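Re: that chain you flagged

S.,

Sorry for the slow reply, it's been a week of failed gels. I finally had a moment to sit down with the sequence you sent. For the record, here it is as I used it:
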Amino acid sequence: IIEETNLGIQRFDIRDAMLASRELELSGPVDSESVAVIIRGILYLQKVDAAAPITLFINSPGGEVSSGLALYDVMQAASCPIRTVCLGLAASMAALLFIARDMLPHSRVMVHDPLISGGVGGSALSVKARADDLMRIRDITAQVIAQHSGMDLEQVFEITARDTYFEAEDAVAAHLADRVINTL
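Prediction finished late last night. Pasting the structure tokens below so you have them in one place:
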């Protein structure tokens, strides 16, 4: 962004302008790097003004559950209200970060059970330990969906047993989103 001020012509990165407007974005995979940037932004904005709302724009295929849950916990613990807006797609872990918020008309939400990343190998005990951990993560993510959507756990397990996509209006009907918006 190029702006003329009383100090002359100045250049600003668009992310700096967004941060000044209390806007953050998750665009791409949910991973430790992308989550760290958003967490730093939330903590900084909370320090600047602990009550002013923050908007988080999400367009993500999902990603790492542990990184996503770290961001989810920060979003829940922040004193600032955090409004999330789905642009395009909020899938998998990104859907948990988005859930129960605003969607643009042509956005979609996809939910499913957590997936195993990488190959599963090793001893029978290590495979069982990995499976037990995956089921624990499945329970945690299902509880998050249930808490924000009003669904009971049985309903959540039913829709997350496979990749389930919701168009904007369908996501509202399923209580996975609050409303479809036409303006930001």
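What I noticed first: Helices lie at 14-20, 32-48, 65-77, 93-98, 124-149, 153-160, 168-173.

Talk soon,
D.
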